[in-house]
Amino acid sequence: MKKRHDIIVIGGGSAGYAAARTARDAGADVAIVDQGPLGGLCILRGCMPTKAILRSAEVAALLRRAKEFGLSSVSVQADLSAIVDRKNRLVREFADYRIQQLHDPQFTLYPSRAAFQSPTEIIAGDRVLSAGSFIIATGSRPSDVSIPGLAQAGHFTSDTILDLRIRPDSLIVLGGGAVALELGQFFARLGTRVTILQRSRTLLSGMDEAVGRALEAALLDEGFAVVTDAQLLRVTHDATGKTVWVTKDGHEQSYVGEAILQALGRRPNIEGLQLDLAEVAVEGGRIVVDEALRTSQAHIYAVGDVNEISPIVHLAIQQGETAAHNAMHPNGPVKELDHRLDAEVVFTDPQVAVVGLNESLCRARGIPYLTASYPFADHGKSLCLGATHGFVKLLCAPGTGELLGAQIVGPEAGELIHELIAVMYYHGTAADLVRMPHYHPTLAEIVTYPAESIVEQLGT
Full-prediction pTM beyond 0.90? Predict the structure, then answer.
């Protein structure tokens, strides 16, 4: 059976639904092809389940500090199975709402796999579907890594560990990115001995070195073992546990744990799409797109994790909206991505939040900048909260003081960054931050201190 639509979206997650909704609102006949389970990575295996379990760990960590705040000591025993049950209830609620959205009668939903037959047709179940434009939004899955012995020893990924109901006594985490650190801290706060093995020189290696160093200091204070610049060699296992062998500083070292979490990134979920038949260019396992999200076929777009522009959900949603707009206006005007306000949050404790440019990017691009930072350890509200790890750093243009970027490591960084995003949205300056009233005592007022330093550097 054959059927034609104006736009076919392959994948119904955050990016795909945003694309479908945007095209629908513009009057298009939109089909969504998704083999399920419906909901998307963010809801089922990403943002929402991880934040649900992290909240349990945050409460446990705070209760264990009761004596520090003049309260009677509390004995906290984590019930991992109960934590997973709570997570599953929340995920079900979120997924049910998304499923309801996907079953909107203004869409045609095909609950099946999709595979291209040509640049203009796909197979979805027993149907052959054609469209004027296609938007690929099939998400990602954990990367396969070729570490000798890892598969034989057995390991968890960020997908599978979310359903673990028996806490391991010890856990070796391979990787030092956001997923590795969030999940590692979760298990550490439930009582697991956690060792982080990071291949790069610092944690969160895609950010400024100072960010990774500050977070590492906090994790070390919490009892983590953090090993950076460790080159993974092999994994062995026996009745006593699993051993990861690395080289560090020219010497071979080994780390033993009951379980291993492989958190070395994710890869686009594009196998089975038959992109070769669509004549869509793929490099390094990623779909190649331009700033308008077009692939090598101008009528086929790719959004979200499949193109690897950014694995951040709100940016994937922007990509979906942008691609749908361009699909609806093939003759222009073309809408392109604007990366000036790209932001990222890591939900460790302390949190990490960044927006815009950092020092490394400025140096690489030859962009002049002024910078200033201020520590939470010298901030009144932070001291009252007992949350003193980290800092706020601002980067501004030398001539005008316009805010170019910011990094925050500290309490509620994911919330604090939004004031700086708002200022940057309006091309605001360090002087604007100083002039804006900030209630005292609040965490938010800390941004005014590096802003004052930059204003002094500007001589204004």
Answer: yes
